Amino acid sequence: xxxxxxxxxxxxxDVDAYVAAVIRPPEDERGPGIVIDxxxxxxxxxxxxxxxRGMSL
Amino acid sequence: MSAAMVSAVGQLVALPFxxxxxxxxxxxxxxxxxxxxxxxxxxxxxxxxxLACSGLLLGWSAGDAPAVYAMGNWPAPFxxxxxxxxxxxLMLAVTAVLGLACAWYSLGGWDxxxxxxxxxxxxxxxxxxxxxxxxxxxxxxxxxxxxxxxxYGLMLHGGGVERLRATFHYVVYNLVASSVFLIAAGLLYGMxxxxxxxxxxxxxxxxxxxxxxxxxxxxxxxxxVFAVKAAVLPLAFWLQGGYDSASPPVACLFAVMxxxxxxxxxxxxxVVFGANAGGASDLAQPWWLPAGIATLLFxxxxxxxxxxxxxxxxxxVAVSAGTLLIAVGTGTAQGxxxxxxxxxxxxxxGALLFLVCGEVVASRPGAGARLAPGPRIGEWRTGLAxxxxxxxxxxxxxxxxxxxxxxxxxAALEAAGAAAAWIALLGSTLVAVIALARAGSxxxxxxxxxxxxxxxxxxxxxxxxxxx
Lengths: 57, 468
Known about the structure:
The structure holds 2 protein chains of 2 kinds.
Chain A: H1 2-13, H2 15-23, H3 27-30, E1 35-36, H4 38-42, E2 49-50
Antiparallel strand pairs in A: 1-2
Chain B: H1 3-12, H2 15-30, H3 36-60, E1 67-70, E2 81-84, H4 86-106, H5 117-133, H6 137-156, H7 161-192, H8 197-205, H9 212-230, H10 239-245, H11 248-254, H12 257-271, H13 285-304, H14 309-329, H15 333-363, H16 380-394, H17 400-412, H18 418-445, H19 460-463
Antiparallel strand pairs in B: 1-2
């Protein structure tokens, strides 16, 4: 268990990895990426985000 | 792991929050008076499910990068995210173990002392799990509120003047802390435009120098909030009354509540106000070690003068909070690793001690858990459980707390103020051993001839003993 907690401590202190995982998900899990039009998002217009399959959300 | 399996396990990340919320709704709809048996079964099944789920997530978290679950597939920082890494998986596992222990022990009669015990327990578990998983400061606040609302009901469960008084203190402390939390979150949002922890890390690091003072103010307000939750001196005075007067299964679950405060400190002050946070870097780090030493010494003195086993167990929870702060205050990976091992151990040891307290109350009619002459406890299993819990709570070998404390001592060697930290750690361990030995001697070994002391009113716990 102490190996696990030591690894957990190292992972917790690795802020860059945390930020990268949350803000920039790996492409192999998310596809080519979700396109976000910030202006459309703010004004609640359709097509603010487009998922990896190209569908307007 | 195949893509389909990754996707399936990815959905599991939300389950520790979603399952208890849904079960709580069903339990409330069922009503616990007419369908008590069904409610108990559902609550136990839910807790067992949470334990199995947390075990899976613990195994899955051993990967390199944290797993992120985006609600509705909205990416951060626009959507709500749950982040599973080793730290959050460890906390989920500890909570699941304590939740199952609480639910199981309450079947002895404690759950029928009031209404909606199991529904409140499930809401409490949902709040705790959500707080450990969330990657967002506002949802951390929401989960704090969810678990606090449930904990108010759980602390009052069983009724009585002492519980009402202790719960009132607890509610006032936490309402003030919640208000401060909201002010801090508002300040941060006003300055950065985001409350996602990862996005905050980017925004705070890039903030202009003229914003540093406000950002530091917000960070220090958050430190105060988490210090209240973790029962850090001088914000720890809600702890003894609250834990001592709560029923044993509730106190068992509450053993993880102070750890939530420490977890929040670690998470927020590592990600948002860590070494790379520009003008707000390492904001609270210099405070943790002295605060931990002060908490440890105060709690050790209070433990030595405790008048009941419940009060002693409550002060040992505060001792564990102080030890954790010292370990976190070293600011090293070695110290944090030792802290996490100690956190795991101390949560389970504290919970076990509260359950033993419940057995002591049941075995000493009229005297309860008061550390004063009374009927000797003849049940050998209760004595053995107390011995085990005492060894664990004091951090003595051969149990894992000893290894964890050694790790904390080793990490403290490299910190500024190492001598004070060592004195506090070793001194508090010695005092804890003496206090536990005294309690064991009074409760289990004192000869019948010396039991004729002055008549004293029954302890709080004795009045709350369930019918068996």
